[in-house]
């Protein structure tokens, strides 16, 4: 019995009864402005990142962005945007696929375009070279930047795909000025603001900018500055109590993330050498004690069971080849295709529209199969003839040919077959 046809109505155009397969509907990617701590850890775990090496690359990459920004005299908005792109890119690609310095410079290159402070790729590379070699400065037209320039341009495409062509970023420095002036005034808050501003720059060496809203970041910086300077804490708490958008759990998580940076990597920060390390550890212990007293978790939306699951290594963005200096030096068009298939990756800005479209297309990818068994009669060929003229029957020693005792006689038998009947994909 042959497998049955699909249950979908056939296309009878020109007498053709087969179901025609249309073009692939493609894949949808929708950007996400915020990421939870659990998702960050899962992405790092799936990428197989070493925690110590991952922290080192993150700190060095952000510091490189800051040094090049100061050398080129770019606004702090470009720094904020570049660090955000850098963090998102590193979460989606393994460390072995690229050089973190190339990723940092490519992120700054994209950020300059987004913030309308356009710089050529060779200008950024020359600035990075001059920062590292101040005794031997060079110009952007030097031939040594030909190959790295192609790598930066190719990484630019991957960064755009990583962020989903969503160029929205957050700039806490602007809101920080307004909040400090509102709490302390223009003249009394200068020293306080200088400390808070330096802490705001240090904050971008953590994953806080891709986790929290602008107001949560600003309030965490202001409160932590008041705790470290031991002043104006009452005014800060009074200001926070009047704000509806203030969320204590998000602010506490942000402050603890910044304190983790200062307690573990204080030499790589601006404020690490200005305050006593023991004082920062005491503040951290006090905040953790407050969380335990209020029965609040350390991280919002955290699930210990999900974190303990085994990693699921996958190739982000379905890479066709690793992004290394060797593969991109000669070809700037090495782009990663959507899922490594023929479908086109489309970027949708509205999550609701993307969800509705996925639900509509989902039913066309659903496969149904029905399994059943049938018995089919299968004839068995006669035994071969021998030279002595005997065919089957008995032989001189009382032996019988093997074929005589087969099930169903010498010319009968059956064989069980398994058939599948189902409905495949059609789109």
UniProtKB/TrEMBL annotation:
Bias kind Basic residues: ranges: 418-427
Pfam families to which the protein is assigned, alphabetical: Cyclin_N
Composition bias, Polar residues: 1-16
Bias-annotated ranges (Low complexity): 311-329
SUPFAM superfamilies, alphabetized: Cyclin-like
Keyword list, A-Z: Glycosidase, Hydrolase, Kinase, Transferase
Domain named Cyclin N-terminal: residues: 47-167
Origin: domain of life: Eukaryota
A GO molecular function held by the record: beta-glucosidase activity
Region span, Disordered: 1-29, 307-345, 381-427
Entries under PANTHER family matching the protein: CYCLIN (PTHR10026)
Protein name (Swiss-Prot/TrEMBL): RNA polymerase II holoenzyme cyclin-like subunit
Species name: Neonectria punicea
Gene: CTK2
